[in-house]
Design goal:
Layout: H1 2-29, H2 33-40, E1 42-47, E2 56-57, E3 67-68, H3 70-82, E4 85-90, H4 93-101, E5 107-112, H5 116-121, E6 122-124, E7 139-144, E8 161-165, H6 169-176, E9 183-187, H7 190-198, E10 204-208, H8 209-218, E11 224-226, E12 242-246, H9 250-266, H10 268-282
Helix pairs in contact: 3-10, 8-10
Length: 285
Amino acid sequence: MKRTVSMLLCLVMLAGLLSGCGQSAAKEQSKNRLEEILERGYVTVATEPYFAPEEFIDPSKEGDEQYVGSDIELAKYIAEKLGVECRIVPLDFTTVLSSVTEGKYDLAISALAYKPDRAENMNLSKTYFLSDDADENSYGFAVSSALSDSVKSLEDLNDKVVVVQQGSLQQFIWETYGGACKELKYVSSTNDAFMMVTEGKADAVITATSFARLYIEANAGCNINMVEDYRFPVSEDYLGMVIGMKKGEDELTARINEIIDEVVASGIYKEWRSTYAAYAASLGL
């Protein structure tokens, strides 16, 4: 009889412990990403640091200090507003997207533009930057200087080798607006795409006009020219930069949008971008 009572008491205690563990686990699971960030004391920001002036590397610096740019300043500003540490995570562009989509990191701040598939797979913030210059917001293509006189339109690329950053808005635009070429090559960064044209491995690169102008100005010997006679007829929906977060993290998205409202109202992002455009040019980026 005593053994039976002891067993019953053990079972009751075990049930209580399991119930407590279950309640604890449920409590942990109920935390949203914003609460997790505030509790742990830091926010992780995934970025591809090869897109000046938004994010790039200063080789004279080390550690986190080497990652600079207007998006890096935005990441630090957000961390400050949240009252936490900012941890920059440098990745290739496709991994930036997948890692945040999967919830491995908190924010994707990497000159992201709105795309329908991104909106399906991630929470996207409000726009934090859109240039006042319409041409700076545009997308087109740059070609090897040797082709400047013969390539003026999209059709002129039919027999050319074209390169584009994989997973980027540029790729989406190329496919959406009927781009055709002899061969299409993919790279992980826009810098690599421009290098391929310089090295004769491709004839043209699909690019944001603003990035192309900065790159060509900073690299006088790159032998690349922007084609001025053609711009893709991009919908306004795809213009401007946004922040990506895991799908369903609405509390975090709402807080990020509040911070973006402050950034846009103050005009500080435009100041950062102007400063880092000059900074990047001084590094030859």
